[in-house]
Structure formats: C-alpha cells, structure tokens
Amino acid sequence: MRYMELNNGVKMPILGYGVFQIPDHEQCERCVLDAIEVGYRLIDTAQGYGNEVAVGNAIRKCGVPREELFITTKIWISTYGYENAKKSIEGSLERLQLDYVDLLLIHQPFNDYYGTYRAMQELYKDGKLRAIGVSNFYPDRLIDLIKYNQVIPAVNQVETHVFNQQVKAREIMKKYGVQIQAWAPFAEGKNNLFSNETLNAIGDKYNKSSAQVALRYLIEIGVSVIPKTVNKERMKQNIDVFDFELTNEDMDAIAALDRGETLFFSHYDPEQVERLTSLVRKF
C-alpha cells in the first residue's frame, strides 16, 4: 500500500475502502472484514451511512492492530453546531468502539459548519481526532473556511472520477495543502465507465480492467480513492493497482475524458440543497 502524508504529518493510505450504501449491518461487517483481510487499511464510513456500528464491530474482530488502521467518519448535517458536534463525535467514537478516529470530515457544506469545525479543532487538539477535514466543499467555501480557522483541513472529499477530474479544484487544494480524496471514483458506473473504450484499450496493454486503470489514473494525479464494492474478488482487483504505471500518452488520453461537470448533483443547485438539508437523521 502506498501512503501519502497529510498537512499535519499524519500518513494516510492513498487507497481505501468505502462503505457508502451498505446499510445492512451484517453485510457491512462482513465487507469490512473482507476488505481488511484483502489488505485495505483505510476504512471510510459516516454517520449518515448508518453503519458505524458494523464498521466498529469489524474493527474489533479483524485482528489487525488499531495503529495499522486508518478510520474515517463524517458528521451529518443534523448534528452540526458546536455543542451538537461535540456530542455527535463522541457518539461516533462509541459506535465505532474507538478512542480516536484518524480522520473526521464535515459531510456537507450546510448548516452551522463553522461551529462544527470549532468543535472538531478542539477534539483534534485533545487527540481524539488525528486529522480533520471536509467533504463536498467547493473552492469558494473551502477557502472561506481556511481563512477563518486555525487548522487547515487535511482532506476534502469530493466527487472525482475520469469524467469529472476537478482540475481547478485540485489546483486550489494543492495551493492550500489540502489533500483531495475521491468519492465515487468509478462514477458509480455512469457514462458506461466500465466499458469505456479508452480505459479498456489502455487496460489491455497492462492486463488490467477499466476500473483498475481509472483508479490508477487518479492515484497518479495525486487523488486518494475509496472505491466501494461488496464483492471480495473486486476488492482484490481494486487494490491491485500498484504494479503498473501509465505512460504520458495514457495520461493524456484519460485526461481528455474529463467533462468538468458533476454526474450526480451540484451544491449550487437550490433544489439539490433543499433535498440534502431536508435529510434529517438521528444518531
């Protein structure tokens, strides 16, 4: 596994396993155990996914020393605000059965994320959070948060894949020392990513799949990835991307796939904002 150093010196695996859309506790626990057995050391969950308990059970049972694992979770909108955030973070630690998490993210740029970030900074200084960051923050809100807080976010997790490569956003994150991490690195199969002619042609040269080429490309441009699958064999395939390198010609061909726009939703779209902010969850 390759590691990257965050802006506070903490080392994070560049490739991890995400558990979004695995709400069934038994299945999620099995998947996390499978992922750790395969070799994943970064596990990405969230309050909003409803599976922190399952992830915690798997961590407890996996047999891998805690210090070898990198656990990420995220605070949901309905628990934002200074006091609420402190309580919700303690709740996440309890559900995960951990004394600390390696990375805590603000899940969405809505509600009182300033108060939330202040609480996160306190717990970061207390050692309960090894690193803190954000998710789904566009450049304008990311810069605003950076300018008025002491701790620069270590990570910004955003939609990133070959069809939306976040070129400008990556430039800004690099300027401020924020590590970009990709959710939906396969674009959830949209635009027929798994049968894309460009990716398949490149994959044929290295005996790799289109999915492996897509992950390798993101890694080579410095993007951390957290692919999700419930299939153990595909887990093995997704982590098997460190034994080949793309040529400049390969990189240029994949860069040309970029459409520079979301395939899911825009945080500038009022209807989408209304939908997201109406998802109130209790923890």
UniProtKB/TrEMBL annotation:
Q: What is its EC number?
A: 1.1.1.-
Provide this UniProt record's keywords sorted from A to Z. NADP, Oxidoreductase
Residue intervals of the NADP-dependent oxidoreductase domain: 19-258
Residue ranges annotated as transmembrane are: none
**Lineage: superkingdom:** Bacteria
Q: Which GO terms describe its molecular function?
A: oxidoreductase activity
InterPro entries in UniProt: AKR, Aldo/ket_reductase_CS, NAD(P)_OxRdtase_dom_sf, NADP_OxRdtase_dom
Give the UniProt family note: Belongs to the aldo/keto reductase family.
Q: What is this protein called?
A: Aldo/keto reductase
Q: Which organism does this record belong to?
A: Paenibacillus aestuarii
